[in-house]
Design brief:
The complex is a heterodimer of chains A (297) and B (411).
Chain A (H helix, E strand, L loop, with lengths): L3 H4 L2 H31 L6 H17 L7 H24 L4 H23 L12 E4 L4 E4 H23 L1 H11 L1 H6 L4 H26 L8 H14 L4 H22 L4 H27 L1
Antiparallel strand pairs in A: 1-2
Chain B lengths: L1 H25 L1 E2 L2 E8 L6 H20 L3 E3 L2 E11 L4 H13 L5 E3 L4 H13 L4 E3 L15 E3 L9 H10 L6 E7 L2 H17 L2 E8 L7 H10 L3 E5 L1 H15 L5 E4 L7 H5 L7 E4 L8 E2 L3 E2 H12 L5 H20 L4 H9 L2 E4 L2 E4 L12 E8 L2 E8 L19
Parallel strand pairs in B: 2-4, 2-5, 5-6, 6-7, 8-9, 8-10, 10-11, 11-12
Antiparallel strand pairs in B: 1-2, 3-4, 12-17, 13-14, 15-16, 17-18
Classes of the chains: A mainly alpha (297), B alpha/beta (411).
């Protein structure tokens, strides 16, 4: 137990801001996962790998002398087609099957992608420099890297853009219809096959955006995808499917909770405490559900 | 019937002779002494596995072209059988078994990384096969009483001890306040043990002791604590990811500490990837080309660096240099034993006392190299070009330590 954060309350400001910025970025990845989970009923274990591939795109732009910030435009375009291709190659064969089959299939994609990245990009840890500088508050005691602020703003912009797209566009409406009832949508003339491919592509594009943001805020390595998969999975579970404000809130909430756990319990309990929270939330949900059921009887 | 029996007996006799001879011949085929190595050519250690293999090959070619190995009046040459362990410890142990049992290898070279060395050591030990390894620094390799394991590199707990001593020295011999963050893996925790021991020895106080989870790539919380508590030294170790994350966030958060000591700066190409932001970081390394150790095969570090680059197209990291040194140790041991008998060679190995371009080598009874100190270098920049300059141990150092590190506001 460490009481430093209570002795220096300014750290609480730092922890909250760090947590929120971190959470928004994770929420973007989780939003993509929730979207295709809701529409296609597929849990994508390769989510984190798609993020990292997106990151490498930004990294190679940086290497070629282009500012990695432009990765947020180039990476989603490339990743959309990567996702679309993956759907045509693998996912369309498992989309109507048991959830377990799709988990196995995406797990396979995840391993394959890791190895391919390792083969093509090498096993070195790499970073891209944004040179965005730092914003400081309270006489330099609270610092916010501009790269993280940039990441948060971009994430929010993409999320809002997507919500509007889902409401207004034809494809968006088709996606929502398929999510509600695929069979009925098909009868009404929606080409569900196309909708699935587009959904998987959109998810991959979101991963691409997140990946290029991670390239300038954290580090890239062929094998660091899994934490992003796990984190977005948790956020979706807590928020529930088809609940965008919920995804954003649970993303930020987990981020802040994680930061405070780090200060109070110690860094080694950081991840553990997030998982404990997840278990507690699931138990509480079950408890609430069972009460509801009794009432219905 | 009788003839058939005779033929069968004859054929099986030949087969038996051939198979047994191929086993006994495998350690030495013609004028070649066969060494075995499982190295990571694919998987997450593939980059460093490649450095290891290139280091081995570079030394084999050099030794062979400079007269080979003279044993019992006959001249032999080295040859290495390689297998790819896929960066997987289970696979590494299997391959060691295969090298020894099927290929009949009697002399082993180590794999890359502590984890894989730990997986192979029980196999070589059980079969009483001597192994000279160059890339397993974990302290636990030297506490199990292994008799056939010899490591040319310094153990992990020695990595950053020097930095604490240096900080105390710069503080006028007074104890210092230490903040540290180590990843939770075998290697980094070994480094931590060394720092804790050094802190105890010097009476220094550890005010932050964070253990970073393996999945973590965000150290903001640790660094905010450092900012609030103002320690004299910040020690970070968490492989390449840890080093790159630390520098990125220290620069972003403008964390001022008098001394920043780390590991894996060269493996992560810190100076190249982070440029000026990495300036003044102090890094532990097994070897640096500017050290003035010498041997007759490679000359000195500068020469090794130049010739390695000419052949492989990149500057050798210490992983390559220490791998080359392992072959020099083998050659020396064969010639002193004046025999190809593995037990006699093992005894000769245990009495090794030599200087190579990589450093002095002398093994403790546990097989640890006790003659070579760790090197500390500091990243220094001129304009946009950043370089590693050796600052400790002072006897071999080429540059002077900058201490305390200038504040971010003055850079």
């Amino acid at each position: 137990m460490d009481l430093l954060i209570f002795q220096a309350p300014i750290l609480m400001v730092q922890a909250s801001l760090d947590g929120i910025l971190l959470g928004i970025l994770f929420a973007l990845i989780a939003y993509g996962m929730a979207l295709q989970w809701g529409v296609m009923n597929i849990i994508n274990i390769a989510q984190g790998e798609l993020v990292i591939v997106g990151g490498y795109i930004a990294y190679f732009m940086y290497k070629a002398g282009i500012h990695p910030g432009f990765g947020i435009i180039v990476s989603p375009i490339i990743m959309y087609f990567v996702g679309w291709g993956l759907y045509k190659l693998v996912i369309n064969k498992v989309v109507d099957r048991d959830l377990f089959i799709s988990i196995l299939a995406t797990f396979g994609i995840s391993i394959l992608t890791q190895q391919l990245m390792n083969f093509i990009f090498g096993s070195d840890v790499v970073v891209a420099q944004s040179n965005f500088g730092t914003t400081m508050f309270f006489d330099g005691m609270v610092t916010l890297p501009n790269a993280k602020i940039f990441a948060a703003i971009v994430s929010i912009a993409f999320a809002i853009g997507l919500v509007i797209y889902m409401r207004k566009s034809k494809l968006g409406r088709a996606i929502r219809a398929t999510a509600q009832n695929a069979r009925a949508a098909k009868i009404m003339g929606v080409n569900t096959e196309k909708v699935y491919a587009a959904t998987f592509g959109i998810n991959a594009a979101l991963c691409g955006v997140a990946g290029s943001l991670i390239a300038i805020t954290f580090t890239l390595h062929p094998y660091v995808g899994l934490p992003y998969t796990v984190r977005s999975f948790m956020i979706v579970i807590i928020a529930g499917l088809g609940n965008l404000p919920g995804v954003a809130l649970s993303g930020m909430g987990l981020g802040v909770f994680e930061e405070f756990a780090d200060y109070i319990l110690g860094t080694e309990f950081r991840i553990g405490s997030v998982f404990t929270l997840l278990v507690l939330i699931l138990v509480y949900r079950r408890f609430k559900l069972s009460r509801k059921r009794e009432y219905l009887k | 019937m009788k003839i058939k029996n005779i033929i069968i007996t004859f054929i099986s006799a030949i087969a038996l002779v051939l198979s047994s001879s191929s086993i006994s011949l495998a350690k030495v085929v013609g004028d070649k002494i066969i060494l075995g190595a499982a190295v990571s050519l694919t998987g997450k250690y593939s980059t460093n596995g490649e450095h290891t293999k290139n280091g081995y090959n570079f030394a084999v070619e050099r030794i062979n072209s400079m007269g080979g190995i003279k044993v019992g009046g006959k001249t032999y040459k080295f040859d290495i059988i390689y297998y790819d362990d896929e960066s997987n410890s289970g696979r590494a142990a299997q391959l060691a078994e295969r090298l020894i049992k099927q290929d009949g290898v009697q002399y082993m070279l180590g794999p890359y990384s502590s984890g894989l060395t730990k997986a192979i050591a029980p196999v070589t030990e059980e079969n009483k096969i001597p192994m000279v390894e160059a890339n397993g620094a974990s302290r636990s390799l030297f506490t199990k009483g292994y008799k056939y394991l010899f490591a040319v590199l310094s153990a992990a707990n020695q990595y950053l001890e020097v930095a604490i001593d240096l900080a105390v020295e710069k503080n006028g011999g007074n104890p210092v306040k230490i903040a540290m963050a180590f990843e939770q893996d075998a290697f980094s925790q070994d480094v931590r043990i060394g720092v804790v021991e050094a802190a105890k020895r010097t009476g220094s106080k550890i005010i932050i002791d964070d253990k970073l989870p393996k999945e973590l790539n965000d150290m903001a919380a640790t660094l905010a604590k450092v900012k609030a508590t103002k320690p004299d030294v910040l020690v970070v170790s968490g492989h390449s990811k840890g080093a790159l994350t630390a520098i990125r966030q220290i620069a972003e958060m403008k964390v001022d500490v008098k001394m920043l000591a780390m590991t894996h700066c060269d493996a992560s190409k810190l100076a190249k990837q982070h440029g000026k932001n990495s300036e003044y970081a102090l890094c532990a390394a097994q070897w640096h080309k500017s050290l003035s150790y010498k041997d007759k095969f490679f000359g000195d570090g500068m020469k090794y660096d130049k010739e390695f680059k000419a052949q492989f197209g990149y500057n050798p990291p210490y992983q390559a240099a220490e791998s080359s040194a392992a072959l020099l140790v083998w050659k020396d041991a064969f010639e002193r034993a004046n025999s190809l008998d593995k037990d006699k060679v093992r005894d000769a190995l245990s009495k090794t006392d030599m200087q190579t371009f990589y450093g002095n080598i002398k093994f403790s009874p546990a097989g640890q190299n006790i003659a070579k100190p760790m090197v500390l270098f500091q990243v220094r920049c001129e304009g946009d070009k950043c370089e590693n300059k050796v600052v400790a141990p002072t006897k071999w150092a080429a540059a002077k330590l900058v201490h305390p590190v200038p504040k971010w506001s003055e850079r």
